[in-house]
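queue> pop job 88
queue> type: inverse folding (structure -> sequence)
queue> payload:
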């Protein structure tokens, strides 16, 4: 078997065109969706992601701004910035780029964001709504992954989904969304003892570890769908995922590449959430 590649970049281009039409209509009604991204410090990767979010927003007609704060900013100062944005009617979406410097407790920041403006879908209220199957702003990477599966009509119900990684932003919520669509979900992590035995049972394998080549054909059941979330920058500057792509291609039915896979879909989900927040659909 040779896997079909799910091109996240192409899908994202198509979805952005659809969103642009919707934003054009909203603008005619004098509603200009607006996203504010807060960037703390000078991490080059964060800066590049944030610029990517701004560029994508412009492509669909979402107005966006980046608020830059120094690496030394205190938690109190950052909370002040969030408070102002919460109270600014023209701001529909607020995203605080992670990671944050160590003097700041991430949970305090996420909890300070108005859940109706939490376009990352990280606020405990939004996570709780997701867990109970209510309509809300969903975490961007997991929602992007579900959109990729739906785009290929890959059935989820009754399938065994194995998720490697249990972070609050990727692993846990992607498992929850798959469960909501009636998959049987297994979570693996750094303390999992028999990783290969578990991954070989997966009909859908989601890999979100952050280390190159943790998965190859030996870990994959023939015909499985393999979703590679990892973004690893190699010494020569190239990007690679967590999955040995050439090897996995031989066993999988579908596979997502890195780059041009899950990454662009994360940004597409962010735009989707910003439009949803602007329309006031989140109570
Ligand atoms: N494409 C995209 O849009 C996005 C990509 N990413 C990328 O996805 C990757 C994961 O991100 P994130 O979830 O934030 O990372 P974290 O570092 O928060 O989580 C990594 C997870 O992998 C688990 N893990 C580590 N080593 C192993 C191992 N040897 N075997 C099994 N599990 C292991 C950890 O286990 P434990 O919990 O026990 O420590 C942890 O749960 C990164 O490469 C990141 O850059 C992230 C966000 C968006
Ligand atoms: N509050 C917050 N929300 C996030 O959503 C968030 C975050 N913090 N911190 C970091 C991670 C990482 N992340 C990515 C988004 C897009 C690509 C992406 O578009 N990648 C392109 C390549 C881009 C390149 O070439 O650098 C691709 O995979 O094709 C990657 C990674 C969002 N994150």
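queue> result:
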């Amino acid at each position: 078997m040779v896997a079909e590649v799910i091109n996240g970049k192409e899908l994202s281009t198509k979805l952005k065109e659809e969103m642009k039409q919707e934003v054009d209509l909203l603008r005619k009604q004098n509603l200009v969706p607006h996203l504010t991204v807060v960037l703390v410090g000078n991490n080059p990767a964060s800066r590049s992601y944030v610029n990517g979010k701004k560029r994508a927003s412009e492509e669909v007609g979402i107005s966006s701004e980046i608020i830059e704060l120094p690496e030394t900013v205190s938690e109190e100062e950052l909370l002040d910035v969030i408070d102002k944005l919460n109270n600014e009617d023209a701001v529909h979406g607020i995203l605080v780029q992670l990671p944050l410097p160590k003097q700041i407790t991430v949970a305090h920041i996420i909890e300070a964001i108005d859940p109706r403006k939490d376009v990352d879908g990280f606020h405990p209220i939004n996570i709780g709504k997701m867990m109970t199957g209510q309509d809300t702003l969903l975490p961007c990477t997991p929602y992007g992954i579900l959109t990729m599966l739906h785009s290929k009509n890959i059935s989820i119900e009754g399938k065994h989904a194995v998720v490697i990684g249990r972070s609050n932003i990727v692993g846990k919520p992607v498992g929850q969304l798959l469960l909501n669509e009636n998959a049987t979900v297994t979570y693996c992590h750094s303390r999992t003892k028999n990783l290969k035995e578990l991954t070989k049972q997966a009909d859908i394998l989601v890999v979100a570890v952050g280390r190159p080549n943790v998965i190859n054909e030996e870990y994959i059941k023939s015909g499985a769908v393999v979703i590679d979330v990892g973004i690893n920058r190699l010494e020569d500057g190239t990007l690679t995922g967590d999955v040995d792509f050439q090897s996995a291609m031989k066993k999988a039915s579908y596979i997502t590449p890195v780059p041009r896979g899950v990454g662009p879909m994360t940004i597409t989900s962010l735009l989707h959430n910003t439009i949803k927040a602007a329309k006031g659909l989140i109570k």
